[in-house]
C-alpha cells in the first residue's frame, strides 16, 4: 500500500478500479436518457440524416451528441470511453501543473475529481450528462495542457498540435466550454504577445476555433428552434427580460448554488483558510479567509426559504419568477453579500500566491468559471438544468486550489503535519463522493 501511495503512476490504479466499479453499477431508467432517442434516430435516418436533422431542428452540439450516440448503444464501449475521459481529465490537470511525477499531487488531483458530486451527472440521464459535460471538460483540459507545455518551453510536434486542436474542436462544441476556452486562450495569447513579446501559436489557434464554435452555436438553426421550445416549457416571459435581468438571474443562481454547501466550494475555501492561518498566524487574515466556508455551511438550511430576495424562490427545483414578479424586485442585498464573500475567497488566494501575475491568472480562471454559469442566465433552462451546469465553475475552483497548493509546495514540505491534514481533508471529501456515487440507483443501461 505504501508503494502505491508514493508512486505517482500507481495512484491511478485505485481511481481506475473505482471508475470501473461505478460503471458496472450504472443503470438507466427506461426513457430517462435523451441519448436513447438519438440512437433510434441514427438507426432510422442514418448517420448523415441524423447530423443534418440535429443541426436543423435541435442543437449545435453536433460533434458531442453524435459521438455520444455512436457509442451509447453499447454499454461496454460507452463505459470504456467514459473511463478514459476521466483518466484523461486527471492526467491533463497533472500536466497543466507539471506534477506528472509527484505522487502526493496526483492523489490530491484524483481526490478532488472524485469529490465532485456524481449526482449532478444524473439529471439528464447518465449517458447524456456525462457525454455533454465530462467529455468536453476532459478534452478542454487536455488541449489546455498543450498550452501549459508550450508556456514551459516544451517542443510540440505536429502530431500533438493536431491532437490538441481536435480536442479543442470537440470540447468547444459545448457552449459553456467554448466561452471558457475562448476567454482564456485569447487573453493568454494577447498578454504574452504584448507583455513578453511571445506568440503562442497553439493558444491562438484554440482561440480561433473556440470563437468559431461560439458563432456556430449562436447561428445554428437547431439552437434557435430549441430555444423557442424551451421558452414555452420553462419560462414564457423570457423574452421580456432585459440583458441586465438575465445577468442578474445568472449571477444569483450562480451565487446561491455556490454558497448552498457546494462540496467543491467548501473543500476549496476550507483548505484556503487552513493554509492562510498556518502560514500567517494572523487572526484577522484567518477569519477573513474562513468566512466563505462558514457561509456555505450556514446558508445550506436557508436554501429553500424566501428570505429578503426572490433568489430563494429560484432554487434548484423551483421556477424562475415571472416577469411581473421579477421586475419589481430589485433588492441586491444578497448579491452584495455574496460578492463580499467572493472577495474573501480572492483575499485568501492572493495571500497564498507569490506574484501578481499568478494572482491575475487565478482570478481569470475563477472568473471564467463563474462566467460559464452566469451566462446560463441567457437560457430559459437555467432552472431545469439544475446543478450540472455548475461543473465548470467547480473545476475552476479545483484548478485554483491545486495551483495554490503547488505554489506553496516548499511551505507544505516544511510543515508535514499540515500537508497530511490537507491530504486527509481531500480524502474525506473524496470518500463522501465515492459513497454518494455508489449509492446512486439510476445509471447506465
Q: What's the β-strand tally?
A: 0
What proportion of the residues form beta strands (DSSP E)?
under 5%
Radius of gyration: 22 Å
Overall geometric form: globular
Helix/strand-derived category reads: mainly alpha
Number of helical regions:
20
Order of helices and strands: HHHHHHHHHHHHHHHHHHHH
> What percent of the residues sit in helical stretches (DSSP H or I)?
over 70%
Summarize this, please?
The chain is mainly alpha-helical. The chain contains 20 helices and no strands.
Write a structural description:
It is a single chain. The protein has 20 helices and no strands. The protein is mainly alpha-helical and 445 residues long. 73% of the residues lie in helices and 0% in strands.
Amino acid at each position: 500500500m505504501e508503494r502505491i501511495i508514493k508512486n505517482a503512476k500507481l495512484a491511478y490504479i485505485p481511481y481506475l478500479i473505482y471508475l470501473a466499479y461505478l460503471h458496472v453499477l450504472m443503470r438507466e431508467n427506461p426513457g430517462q436518457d435523451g441519448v436513447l432517442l438519438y440512437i433510434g434516430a441514427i438507426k432510422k435516418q442514418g448517420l448523415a440524416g441524423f447530423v443534418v436533422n440535429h443541426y436543423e431542428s435541435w442543437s449545435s452540439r453536433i460533434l458531442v451528441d453524435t459521438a455520444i450516440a455512436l457509442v451509447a448503444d453499447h454499454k461496454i464501449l460507452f463505459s470504456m470511453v467514459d473511463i478514459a475521459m476521466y483518466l484523461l481529465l486527471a492526467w491533463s490537470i497533472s500536466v497543466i501543473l507539471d506534477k506528472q511525477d509527484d505522487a502526493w499531487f496526483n492523489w490530491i488531483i484524483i481526490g478532488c475529481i472524485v469529490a465532485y458530486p456524481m449526482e449532478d451527472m444524473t439529471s439528464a440521464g447518465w449517458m447524456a450528462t456525462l457525454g455533454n459535460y465530462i467529455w468536453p471538460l476532459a478534452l478542454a483540459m487536455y488541449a489546455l495542457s498543450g498550452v501549459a507545455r508550450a508556456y514551459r518551453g516544451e517542443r510540440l510536434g505536429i502530431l500533438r498540435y493536431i491532437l490538441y486542436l481536435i480536442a479543442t474542436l470537440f470540447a468547444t462544441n459545448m457552449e459553456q466550454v467554448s466561452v471558457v476556452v475562448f476567454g482564456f486562450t485569447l487573453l493568454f495569447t494577447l498578454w504574452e504577445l504584448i507583455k513578453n513579446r511571445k506568440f503562442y501559436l497553439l493558444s491562438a489557434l484554440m482561440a480561433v476555433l473556440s470563437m468559431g464554435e461560439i458563432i456556430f452555436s449562436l447561428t445554428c438553426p437547431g439552437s434557435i428552434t430549441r430555444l423557442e421550445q424551451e421558452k414555452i416549457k420553462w419560462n414564457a416571459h423570457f423574452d421580456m427580460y432585459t440583458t441586465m435581468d438575465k445577468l442578474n438571474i445568472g449571477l444569483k443562481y450562480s451565487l446561491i448554488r455556490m454558497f448552498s454547501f457546494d462540496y467543491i466550494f467548501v473543500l476549496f475555501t476550507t483548505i484556503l483558510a487552513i493554509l492562510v492561518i498556518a502560514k500567517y498566524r494572523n487572526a484577522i487574515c484567518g477569519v477573513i479567509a474562513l468566512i466563505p466556508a462558514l457561509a456555505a455551511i450556514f446558508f445550506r438550511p436557508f436554501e429553500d426559504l424566501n428570505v429578503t430576495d426572490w433568489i430563494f424562490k429560484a432554487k434548484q427545483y423551483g421556477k424562475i419568477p415571472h416577469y411581473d414578479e421579477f421586475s419589481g424586485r430589485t433588492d441586491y442585498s444578497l448579491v452584495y453579500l455574496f460578492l463580499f464573500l467572493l472577495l474573501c475567497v480572492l483575499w485568501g488566494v492572493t495571500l497564498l500566491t507569490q506574484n501578481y501575475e499568478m494572482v491575475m491568472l487565478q482570478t481569470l480562471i475563477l472568473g471564467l468559471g463563474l462566467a460559464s454559469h452566469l451566462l446560463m442566465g441567457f437560457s430559459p433552462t437555467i432552472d431545469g438544468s439544475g446543478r450540472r451546469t455548475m461543473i465548470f465553475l467547480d473545476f475552476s475552483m479545483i484548478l485554483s486550489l491545486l495551483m495554490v497548493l503547488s505554489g506553496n509546495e516548499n511551505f507544505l514540505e516544511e510543515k508535514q503535519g499540515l500537508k497530511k491534514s490537507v491530504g486527509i481533508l481531500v480524502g474525506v471529501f473524496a470518500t463522501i463522493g465515492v459513497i454518494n456515487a455508489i449509492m446512486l440507483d439510476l445509471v447506465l443501461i
